[in-house]
Amino acid sequence: MKMVFSVSQIGGKMCRNTVGVLALLTIGSLSAAASAQTLTLSSATIEDLNAAFDAGTLTSERLVELYLARIEAYNQQGPALNAILWLNDAALATARALDAERTASGPRSPLHGIPVVLKDNIDTFDMPTTAGSLLLVGSIPPDDAFIVKKLRDAGAIILAKLNMSEFASGVTMSSVGGFIRNPHDPARSPAGSSGGTGAGIAAAFAQLGVGTDTGGSVRGPTTANGIAGLKPTHGLLSRDGIVPLALSFDMAGPMARHVYDVAVMLGAMTGVDPADAATLKSEGRFETDYTQFLDEGALRGARIGIGRDFLGSDAEVDWIIEASLQTMRDAGATVVDVRFPQWLLDVKGDWYTTIRWREFRAQIPEYLATIGPEYPKTLAEMVERSLDITSTTPDGGTPNPTRWSLLMQEERSGTLDDHEYVAMRDHGMPMVRSIVEGLMDAHDLDAIVYPTSPTRPSLVDGGGRGGGSSATNIANLTGFPDLIVPAGFTSNRLPVGISFLGRPFSEPRLFGLGYAFEVATKVRRDPVATPPLRGEEIRR
């Protein structure tokens, strides 16, 4: 039995019903002018949706119905992507209310009435937040995460919570929901840890999604599922209300099918949060509208570095990256080869885990203190309780030995007073920042590009990654932003993405470059396993 539920709260208790009720969808007919432009749901941007709202050819209620129909068709049926954990029972009612508000007083923002899905480690007051773990099953937080409140205030509709690598690490499955599948090839992994977000957005289960990234967990699923996404500069978005993995690295990130939509969503979530001191770094440096920086001509005159150290693991991925570089040259960019110091490539993994494991051990109790007394309160208690779950549960939960074994390693890792941790925090991370900024300064670069994943997506039971040396954790060690854009497809129709790594708070420049590349290439394709459904066209 799969753990996919719709969720409501009655008297403080959670009622759960299967998504089969979606068969009762009421789909109203909407008139459109004969000259209206018709788009597929998956190809429509937020700009297109707002034009349809303004033209009277679309309502938010209808849009939610379209996305719920796709979830019904493809999440547990068809390719059975297994991306959704919890559906929001109130989504349609919220959409109707937002439609009425639009009629009465106009939209709050470009996100007014737009459905958004969230990785299940991001707090929602009206749906469970389990981080994909049976250890937290049923936990409903006391309030929304800061970024969720910002989204709701902007008029976005939280449609669902998504499956993920448990506690945002390890194999691309959770003990709550099991393995997630890639809509481009259901035998393949969507990568982790935001695998449900990557698969769900690629399959058009919502317009927008939010993942989290500690070592590549937004960027891996972005490239593996052929969509766009951003790991922002550390401190640009609040981490309040997000289950921590390692706060030195953790960042939420917007994911969407189009760079335009990623830009819209980022602007809605920025802001200094008194509950997260890291956001003070963004004061005076964040924007609330990143779409103003989308520029089809941004590659003209740009200087782009190519991280050659991260090629050589998959000939087809390498070919797509070389073709991407030629597209940039043709658009007027200068492309420069850059090499990272070999010592950094050799040690970056160990430096990362020195921080990551100890911080999870120290920081997860702070989150656990905010939820009910029936849940574990320390990592040691989490390990103890995991040892009692050695078979499937009555609700369909599944043991996750790979992730639970890692819990033991994290528990044994040490403390934040250890000399190794202090050295990495105070000297190692600043050294990596200095090296990367030095490379950019030495070559006068606007960004360094590299294949987000050096190989194509692995099989579902292959651990979620295809191997090869990836640069993703360099963006976490430095805290620098990293924008991912679809770059092409391999001969077996698997997506390849390209990363644009920039300087701190250079998101405006990265959006310009990434948008120009997206417009020049136009390589995004709908997944073969989740084709359009009848009647889901958008007329603007």
DSSP, total strands: 17
Q: Pairing-aware structural class of the strands and helices?
A: alpha/beta
Count of helices? 14
Q: Sheet bearing the most strands, described?
A: 13 strands, mixed
- Strand arrangement, major sheet: 2-1-4-6-5-9-11-10-15-16-14-12-13
The proportion of residues in beta strands is: 15-25%
Oligomer: single chain
Which shape, going by the Cα principal axes?
A: globular
CATH superfamily: Amidase signature (AS) domain
**Radius of gyration from CA coordinates:** 22 Å
CATH topology: Amidase signature (AS) enzymes
- Tell me which CATH architecture applies here: Alpha-Beta Complex
Instruction: Tally the structural domains.
Output: 1
Per CATH, the class reads: Alpha Beta
Helicity range of the residues? 25-40%
Average pLDDT over all residues: 93
Unreliable stretches, pLDDT < 50, 5 or more residues? 7-34
State the distance separating the first and last CA atoms. Answer: 40 Å
Brief summary:
The protein is built from 14 helices and 17 strands. It is an alpha/beta fold and 540 residues long.
What's the topology here?
Elements: E1 5-10, E2 13-17, E3 38-39, H1 46-55, H2 60-74, E4 84-88, H3 91-105, E5 115-119, H4 146-153, E6 157-162, E7 173-174, E8 178-179, H5 195-202, E9 208-213, H6 219-224, E10 228-231, E11 251-256, H7 259-269, E12 303-307, H8 315-330, E13 334-338, H9 342-368, H10 379-386, H11 401-412, H12 419-443, E14 447-451, H13 472-478, E15 482-489, E16 495-501, H14 507-521, E17 538-539
Parallel strand pairs: 1-4, 5-6, 5-9, 12-13, 12-14
Antiparallel strand pairs: 1-2, 3-17, 4-6, 7-8, 9-11, 10-11, 10-15, 14-16, 15-16
